[in-house]
Amino acid sequence: MSITEQNRPTRNRVDVEERLIVAAGELLGEVGPRSMSVRNVAERAGVNHGLVHHYFGGKDGLMKAAMTRLVEEHAAFAKEVSHGDPIPEPLLLNHDPKYLRAVVRAVLDDEMELATTEITEGVSVPRGAIAHAVENMKIDAPDVHMKAMVAVSMAMEMGWAALEPFLFAVIEIKDTEEEEVRDIVRDFRRHMVKQVLQ
Length: 198
Known about the structure:
Blueprint: H1 3-30, H2 32-35, H3 38-45, H4 50-56, H5 59-81, H6 97-108, H7 112-115, H8 117-120, H9 125-137, H10 144-170, H11 178-197
Helix pairs in contact: 1-3, 1-4, 1-5, 1-6, 4-5, 5-6, 10-11
């Protein structure tokens, strides 16, 4: 057997796993964990559905792998866009809809373990920002006020990213005004974060 033939199953497995993870990540955001089926994922990935069980042990293992990929990609994206600053740029989630949709759908489906994968994987952007603030302020732990303000900032960020077109329609923002409104929102969030985390 040639070296190429020996490596083929490994590459094939990696390719199949990758296609399944990507398809599951897409479906987590589109239909949510409850409605996502192994057959739908396998069909989108273009593989036999039995491979989900073979490689991931079933739907739960695949969902965990897909969400882990999404949160790791989100954390890396946040770090890159924020130039390494642990406090993320405002309106960052507008540019990461796959991650946002997957988290929101997991929460709505009452799949909190899946929704909080970023915590179990140690890549939570908000927790990183809080840890950075605690270190800079030379305090032992965040107080309730800090936690509440970070939660408000997260709610604003997630809500804005999820609802921006609706918000613009309701308050009659013209196309020519959209970026100006975003700049105002960014400035507001930066000011809020400075008051709490810096």
